Amino acid sequence: MKLNQAQNYMKLQADKKRKDIHLEVGDLALVKLQPYRQSSVALRKNQNLSLRYFGPFELLEKIGKVAYRLLLP
Fold first, then answer.
1. pTM (2 decimals)?
2. Which of 40, 42, 38, 58 minimizes the C-alpha distance to 50?
3. Left if phi > 0, otherwise alpha if psi is -120 to 50, otherwise beta: which for 55?
4. 38: Cβ–Cβ under 8 A, 6 or more apart, which residues?
5. Which secondary structure element, helix H or strand E, spans residue 57, and what is its range?
6. What is the pLDDT tens value at each position of the chain, 73 positions in all?
7. 30 Cβ partners below 8 Å, 6+ apart?
8. Please, are residues 4 and 16 in contact by the beta-carbon 8 Å criterion?
9. I want to staple 61 with a disulfide (CB 3.0 to 4.6 A). Which of 14, 20, 50, 69 is the partner?
């Protein structure tokens, strides 16, 4: 019983910050890259000052529910 209450409370708190975003072909989107995994884009001496988002890039195709093909340079 207490475990279910805790799970429901955690889900409620997590859902407060979630947004349902629908993108269509032709829209522009920003890409979030993780600096420790993606080393081919704009290396900086201080990783804390590196850019968080790159773009905007055009969406070419919707592949799945949350997967898109982008027009990258």
1. 0.60
2. 42
3. left
4. none
5. strand 53-62
6. 999 999 999 999 999 988 888 889 999 999 887 766 656 666 667 767 667 788 899 999 999 888 999 998 8
7. 53, 54, 55, 56, 57
8. no
9. 69
